[in-house]
Amino acid sequence: MAHSMVYFVSGDSYSDLGALRAAGIIDLHYVIHGGGSSAPSSVVADCNAAGLSPILNNGNDGAAGWDGSDAYNANVAAQGWHAVGGESEQAPEIDSIMSHLIFLDYGGEGTGGGTDDDVWNVTHPGPVSGHGAAGYYETYDGSSNFWGWDVVGPGMLHAKAHGVKEIGIMVGTWMMSHSTPQDYITLAQDMEANGITCAGIGVWGGYGNDANNVYNEFASWFQAWQAIWPPTNVTMKNRFAGPTPPTPATVNFASTPNTTIVGGNMNIFVKGSDDALWQSTDGGKTFPTSLGGTLTSAPTAITRGSVIDVFARGSPDGVFQKQWTGTAWREWFNLGGQVLSGTAPAAVSPDGNTIDIYVIGADTRLYLKTWNGTKWSAWNAVAKAIK
């Protein structure tokens, strides 16, 4: 199911931060030359006034931003910047940043591509520490060839395994003539199919760019992404501080609870009053875990060994799947279809491997979709319309 995303632009100047914020941009990546340079003090104040995250890029295309002292990042933190990053940082610089601010890994020179510059596998094989880290990874090589999941996936998986909190996509302005918005939509979907929530997408211009001009030139790209993933309103500092744990929803028992037993543990799933999917593991005494989503029907759950599959009618009107792999919950997956309002899908696993899902379609016919252990079938009508 759709979730909110971070949208950012970069530049070494800007003309109207309020216009960027109104367009759904939440992070401003302000670019400076390397060698311990500093940004104008007005940038942080301007970002705060407009409601954007001030993020300092202190080195571009291999230019060394760090001056080699821990005092540099302490001073940056004292100025109120939310994060610092650049390209090709070494482990001591990364540790210095994380001890004072959020480290932002820009995927310099192939980091996101699983090459020797994979920061969390080569440069900094230790875990994330301190204030944490985010990574917005390059999706192109030196010849402006677009990289898909098959190339960037290993670096992203390493980042997740090391504790990087936000993992997203960086799009260079020069890539706009070598790719389409759909390329990045597909990559974001592939990330989520492989267990990584795509935190956001941003357009990188680097030196000599006014951030407003970057947005205005590629506004249609942002709008294509935002039509699927609405922009977040939460600045980076607050995103990393973490939200207050949600109060368990008042369970809407008009949506019938559904029970599964895995490894001797009873799991009960219900649609909460907030329309999210909630899970109880104590027999329904409490429902402490929200699994998100926007349900428009009661859930139905089945087990296949240690795997749990939960299905529900969602918005817009299709069937959505949430899966427990045995070790973690995967992102919501849209199985499509048009489910009649007021009805819910029914699911069964005949052999503990395959899955059959039945729904009453918007045309009141009964439809079936089957997972054969490898892929999903199309929706097929199996009964005439109900009169």
Textual characterization of the structure:
This protein is α/β, with parallel strands linked by helices. The chain is 22% helix and 27% strand. It is built from ten helices and 20 strands. It has helices spanning 17-22, 42-50, 70-79, 91-100, 119-123, 149-161, 181-193, 211-217, 219-226, 236-241; strands spanning 6-11, 27-31, 53-57, 83-86, 102-105, 133-138, 166-172, 198-204, 258-262, 265-271, 277-280, 289-290, 300-304, 307-313, 319-324, 333-336, 346-348, 355-360, 366-371, 380-383. An eight-stranded parallel β-barrel has the order 1-2-3-4-5-6-7-8, surrounded by six helices. A four-stranded antiparallel β-sheet has the order 9-10-11-12, with no helix packed on it. It starts with 5 loop residues before the first strand and ends with a strand. Mean pLDDT is 85; it is low at 109-116 and 244-249.
